[in-house]
Amino acid sequence: MKLSLLTVIFISSMAFFGCAEAKSGMDLKTADVEAIIKNYLLKNPEILRDAFIELDKKQDRLALAEISDELYKDPRDSYIGPNNAKVTIVEFFDYNCGFCKKSAGWVENVIKLYPDDVKIIFKELPILDSRTKTSKIAAKAAIAANNQGKFNSVHFALMNERSISEDRIYKIAEKEGLNIKKLKKDMNDPKVDLYLADTLSLATRIPSLSGTPFFIIGDNLIPGADEERLNAALQDILDKT
């Protein structure tokens, strides 16, 4: 944050210095430049706000470019939609997250409306596990359900469940037609824990990701269940393609 502020001040000072020097034909002292900048920023604080917003966006874009393969090409990810879809949406979520549950309806609707144009990649991020004690179990169950071709149904069944207990997770899986014995065996595969650890590590490399749900649609990074922003970002890419 300190470096960002210094960068903004430096750029501002260069602009002010050039402008003032051109008008007066005289060299300004550093103290004079600093005073001009300080007074201007105090009168127009939104300049710093806008600068920081743009800086955050730039940092996010750079981060996405660096982790593109991990975001879009991890073969361990569960997904819905064709590989040649016009739009790929990435969602980080926790099964005990209230806003994730709220946004699940939007995700289901997108799948129904654009079955040939949208692909959704699901990134399990059970960050509430220390409090809920079941977020990680639910995530592992959903991942393991993919081995039986049942991720989709288990995922939305878990999202539609208000309160998730370990017993309820298995009852949901059984209701969706899974072999529970195989499910539990697959859940205990060390590769599942590694995948969850890798996803958490990936999430930490996205500067603006601080909670769930978190959506990536093109260059748009959208936290929370903001359907208006989600629809706008999706429609923008669909219109362009």
Beta-strand share of residues: 5-15%
CATH architectural arrangement of the largest domain: 3-Layer(aba) Sandwich
- Helical segment tally? 12
Q: From N to C, what is the helix and strand string?
A: HHHHEEHEHHHHHHEEH
Oligomer: single chain
What labels describe this entry?
241 residues, alpha+beta, Glutaredoxin, 2 domains, 5-stranded mixed beta sheet, 12 helices, elongated
Polypeptide structure, described:
By secondary structure, this protein is α+β, with helices and mostly antiparallel strands. The chain folds into two domains: 64 residues, no CATH class; 171 residues, Glutaredoxin, CATH 3.40.30.10. Helix content is 62%, strand content 10%. It has twelve helices and five strands. It has a five-stranded mixed sheet, with helices on both faces. Helix 5 links the parallel strand 2 and strand 3. Helix 7 runs parallel beside helix 9 and helix 7 packs across helix 10.
